[in-house]
Each structure stands twice: as structure tokens, then as C-alpha cells.
Model the fold of this input.
Amino acid sequence: MYKGIQITKDDAGYSSEITEIAAKPLQEGEVRVEVKYSTLNYKDALAITGRSPVVRSFPLTPGIDCSGVVIESKHSAWTEGDEVVLNGWGVGEKYSGGLAEQVTVSGNWLIRKPSAFSFKDTMIIGTAGYTAMLCVMALQKHGIQPSDGKILVTGANGGVGSIAIMLLKHLGYEITASTGRPQESEYLTYLGASEIIDRTELSSPGKPLSKEVWAGVIDTVGSHTLANACAGTQYRGAVAACGLAGGMDFPATVAPFILRGITLYGIDSVMAPIELRIEAWQRLATELDQSKLETVTTEIQLTDVINISNDILDGKVRGRVVVKL
Done:
């Protein structure tokens, strides 16, 4: 038996609670991991609160991220004692995830923990930082250089936004941070933003095309914010879209695409191929300023997770929330 959060849905309704969970025998190809750290992401908070239909099977343990040590393996790539990281692959949605003392998953989903990071570091980064790195990689592969102009980061106080700013600053880019919490300007400037704008400048319906401002964009918000970001992107610039905190809709026109030739990259971190994940984590190990990681972090215990989930959805938590198991 091990302790974890379990989400259930039955005639009594939808509920999340900490409980004792019985470990199941390993199937061929599976690995059991003793979880050292997990995280509380936006998607985890949706699952725990039931505000959005994230969970696809019940009962289920949430947690799309975890890092820990292999304690049992029926997969040829992993042996007892290996230090591993898990991001995505449907855990916390279709399969039980990392907000528990143990997790059992396919060995194909694991990557080796970079030696540059502690277990806690990997979860401060987590899916948010790994996704931020995928966004940066997309903009760089598009050919955007620091000399091309400003990069807009929306939802800048969130996990993806915070780490995206840190990465872009390290790489020499000039960053405009869009946030709904202008009182956090000092925090965003410390991370590397050179300009702070209020999210209301982007969150209302806008014009099909606006002034060319940004060479590239990392968007975590969606909806009108993404549409306005596209409308304000420079000729042949690029937008990396990875989130929907503002909504799943995209009320835009084709004008930025056919008149300015911009490119919209969809960034999927959940099912990204293993080679891309390894590249992203290798780059994080060398390009992320680890001295700033604690600044973007709130550490909690498993017993705090359910209460804090609503705060995350209400935009009251900045940066990353890591869970010590």
C-alpha cells in the first residue's frame, strides 16, 4: 500500500481525496517508481477540482509529472535504482500519475534524470519548463534570432511563462511579458523580462492585423490573446501556442498568415516523441539559470494539493508548485 490522491466519480458525485492505494503487479514493459517529487500543474488542478473533464477513467491518481527512483522493473531499459523523470503520455488523465508515493507506468515513457538537476529541480521545471523549452526550440528552428526583435510571452506569471522568460533571457532575447498581475512586475523583470504589459491589452477582441511588434510569441492563453498575438507578429515571424488558460477558441482571421506569412506552431508536450524530450531536457540542463529556480517555486506537501488546486485555476499562484512526497 502507498499513499496518494485518488479521484472518483460515482452516484455520489465527483471527489478527490488522499487515500491508501494498493500496488498492482507489474505487467511486461512496466516500471514502478518511488516518487520523490511531483508537481501541481494547471491540468492537474482541473482534474482534481473537476472544473474540466480532464480525467478519462476512474478511479485515477492525478499528476502529469514526477521524478523518482525505479524500485521494480519489467522493462529492459530500466533497473532498480535508476533515477528517472516522467512528463505527460496521458498520466494523470488516462493513467494514474505522479501525485502519489508510487507510480507504475510504461518504461517507454521514462527518461533518465539529467545529472545536472536534483529531483526537486526536475519538478520545478516539470512539464511547464519542458513545454517552455519546446516552444523556444520551435522559435529557434524557425530561424528567429535575438536581433530580429522582441519575443512576447503571455501568461507570464505561470509556470510555462516564467521558465520561458528565463530561457529566452539566457539566449539573449528581448522579452515582453503579458500578465494579469502587474503587481508582479518586479518578479518578471528579475526573471529577464524587459517590458511588462497588462493582459487586457491582448484579451479583448482585436483587429485582424495590428502593428508589427513581435518577432516571435510564446502563448499559454489561447482565445483572443492568441489571435491578437498573431495579429501583432512581424512579417514571417512565428507563434508557439501551448496553452488555453483563456479559452480553447481562436477568434482570428487568416490575415496574419496570408499577408504577413507568419507561422503558428502547435506545441504538444504530452505525446511528443522521446527523442524530442531528451533534446529538450539536455538543453534545459545547460541553458536554464538554476540559481533562479527557487524564486519561481512554492513547495508543498501532498496534504496541501487539493486546497491549492483552486488557487492555481483562479490565477493566484505564480511560477511552479512542487510537491514533496
